[in-house]
Amino acid sequence: MAVDTYTADDTWVCPSGVTSVDVECWGSGSGGRAGAPLAGGRGGGGGAYSIKLAIAVTPTVGYTVVVGAAGAAGASGADSYFDSAATVMAKGGNAHTGGASASGVGDTKYSGGNGGVSAGKSRGGAGGGSSAGTSANGNTGS
Fold it and tell me: How far apart are CA 115 and CA 93, in angstroms?
């Protein structure tokens, strides 16, 4: 079985003889942010995971592949999807919160981990939440 991996937006052209594909997507992580004076910073949330099995495709037709861009400081990560967000889609992290599996589209979905919160009066950031895996939710950052 051939595997195509994408790290940027592109078009996948269905090869001759192929009539269905399995697609996995990971949403991007969100950016962390510094804390206010005398308050701790927060790590960014990890992206969610979704897989959709046996998507019907047509040979020689091009399908859109969107790889969500990572969020800048304090900004949400973007969703990733194949064909359209209604076919298979994984949510990006939302500021401090991991991408929610319930908002994704797929047969199996997992949520990204939440970003951590730095302790004490440091304005420094905390660890980011991990991306969801293929069989489990992501971990919360430290």
Answer: 9
Please tell me whether residue 102 adopts helix, strand or coil conformation: helix
**Burial category of 118 from C-beta neighbours within 10 Å (exposed 0-12, middle 13-18, buried 19 and up):** buried
CB count, 10 Å around CB of 48? Answer: 35
| Pairwise CA distance, residues 91 & 53, whole Å | 18
Residue pLDDT, tens place only, 35-78: 666 666 788 999 999 999 999 999 999 999 999 999 888 889 99
Residue 109 identity = K
Torsion sign, CA atoms 94, 44, 114, 70 = positive
- Does the pTM of the predicted model rise above 0.85? yes
Amino acid at site 8: A
Enter the tokens of residue 131.
């991306």
Geometric angle at alpha carbon 111, from 109 and 114, rounded to 5°? 175
Encoding tokens for residue 43?
Answer: 């790590």
